[in-house]
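Problem: given the chain below (91 residues), write out its structure.
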Amino acid sequence: MSARERVVRPAHISESLQVKMVHAIEDTKELNFRYLICPYCKHPVMRVYSDATGHIGGKCKKCGRITIFDVMNMRRVSPFKHSVCPIYWRY
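Solution.
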């Protein structure tokens, strides 16, 4: 066998891990999600649920660049609530 050949092993997942995976899927059914977009090529990098916090590193599959996302500071902001528009200055 040469150095480039890989040994393919069947994936075995323990029952305790399967139970944890099922609970995680059930917990996320009620949550909203959004996609983190690569700042370089605008390709979706990963899906983030509404309860996620902290920093996440992701590699874009399109351009191959690695980006660190700050999940809390990259929330979507409604353009109508937070925009500074002269129309509303009159009131």
